[in-house]
From TrEMBL:
SMART domains: AAA. This is Putative ABC transporter ATP-binding protein YheS. Gene3D superfamilies: P-loop containing nucleotide triphosphate hydrolases, Valyl-tRNA synthetase, C-terminal domain. The gene is yheS. Coiled coil: none annotated. Residues 501-543 are annotated as: Disordered. InterPro entries: AAA+_ATPase (IPR003593), ABC_tran_C (IPR032524), ABC_tran_Xtn (IPR032781), ABC_transporter-like_ATP-bd (IPR003439), ABC_transporter-like_CS (IPR017871), ABCF_ATPase (IPR051309), P-loop_NTPase (IPR027417), Val-tRNA_synth_C_sf (IPR037118). PANTHER family: ABC TRANSPORTER ATP-BINDING SUBUNIT, DRUG RESISTANCE ABC TRANSPORTER,ATP-BINDING PROTEIN. Residues 519-543 have a biased composition (Basic and acidic residues). The keyword Cell division does not apply. Keywords: ATP-binding, Nucleotide-binding. Residues 5-216, 283-504 form the ABC transporter domain. GO terms for molecular function: ATP binding; ATP hydrolysis activity; DNA binding.
Amino acid sequence: MAVLIQVRDAHKRYGDQILLDGAELSLVDDVKVGFIGRNGAGKSTLLRALLGNEELEKGEVIHHPSLRIGYLRQHDPFNAGESALDFLMRDSGEPDWRCGEVAGQFELKGAYLEGPVKELSGGWQTRVKLAALLLHDPNLLMLDEPTNFLDLRTQILLEHFLRSFKQAALIVSHDRAFLKATCSQTLELSRGKLTMYPGKIDGFLEYREERREHDRRVNSTVQAKQKQLQRFIEKNRASAATASQARSKAKQLEKLQTTEIEVDEPTVYIRPPRVEPRSGTVLRCENLAIGYPASKEGDAVTIADNINFELEHGQRVAIVGDNGQGKTTLLRTIVHSLDPVDGLMKWGYGVEVGTYAQHVYTSLDEKQTVIENLEYNSMAGTTRQELLAMAGALLFRDEHINKKVKVLSGGERARLCMAGLLLGTANVLVLDEPGNHLDVETVEALAEAMDLYKGTVIFTSHDRHFVGRVATRVIEVRDGTAKTYFGDYDSYLKTVEDEIDEGERQRGKVPPPAAAEAPKAKGEVHRERGKDGRKAEKELKNLEKKIAKLDDEKKELSKKMLTETNPEKAMKQHEEIEKLNAELAECEEKWLELSDFS
């Protein structure tokens, strides 16, 4: 087991902030490490130091002579007009057959491989960058937030790649599900120190909380003993008869020390908006078509149509699907940022919608300070302490609350928008990627807040742990429409995993086709829907009604049979239930066929 990188006594600070304070680290050649820490703790700084792009004030970084680092680039390394294959050959110096072979691991083929790489979506471009990494034959991968803005399928492909990668990896991520699936050890940067835990992130977080709880209990016991000794000393030190005992107790008191509980910041707590629970329909969409209006350059663009669903107050609805299918377009349409192309969309009575999305947080009033913005957006009666607590939870502390909006970064504006939203009175929250720009602890606190929230949540997120914690209903945007997925989020994940596994099995059996369908241009979805598709949609709805009716009949008969005392009648009811089961199975099989078709 070779040590690929060793860090000794590393020190680094920016201004008054200490990032590394005697940090020590050893990365060995066969371990994948998940790297976590609060935002601003110094994770990216350490990565730059490991790469040799950042100098330490003190200490050293030692590279093994055989070290070959593969670093996932965040910037755009592509030349204008070049294809993914051209880029891979230029970047690696490998022949086209070898580049094509590695690209196939990431489903890059046909027009995706041979068409202009700059026209691919961000997720597909990330696949190209990953193929480029592999072509350099690294023995240590360094990935900095690799799942940001990747759709679910690309995340799962990346997981499969990392699990099959036999060398070492250091992965910075706030996505717990991703780290759990890929990393066997966990590294935390906290208060300038590095802690390596020989287990997955869930085990580390439990261990860390148990350790802190133990320290709290010990401190409580020590403090009680300190008070007891202090009272004895004060009572007896003035008396000649007991002065020696008092001195002895004073020595004991000096030896009693509490343990410093190592937390970078106070535990994150995010309170949800305080609203009254409501019942009934909150949003109805009928034959809705979404997209973008006509421009001078061309006609209106329809992204998806024939969208029909009804949401109830109190639901937490995850909008899922691959990038480019229209998730954000759907969210922007339901909050009236975009007009519907066609169809009906109607909010229920008494609805107040709060929105978290890029088009909102990039248009904040730049003249306000952080605290002024929060005061403006918070509900009446919110105390200054509550404002400061929310600001602190979203990483605005001390002098940062007086910063002007105009000097905030994109990530800071996003967090400010989130803080203002959570201090408001909205009984419906529409959130587009709420976990971006937040660390592991803050994402978890946000999930807990959404659990406690009495209103309705409609959201998109690439963070599977967050979606699994929050979602009570799943709507999938796919193949030019949006429909309710009949199952929970875990079953949806299983479906996507199975599709990817089947694709990988087929790719292993047969050679890839010479050409594939051209990639979809940004903002467009290419669809072919004929009369047969419309007919299938109609039949699908009728089948859903029939399945619900048959299921109700079956439940009613089952109840009767449980209370029936006449054996002959019970047997007859059992036979009727069997008939219903057979009819239900037939309808469900037909429903599955039509779902695939539509």
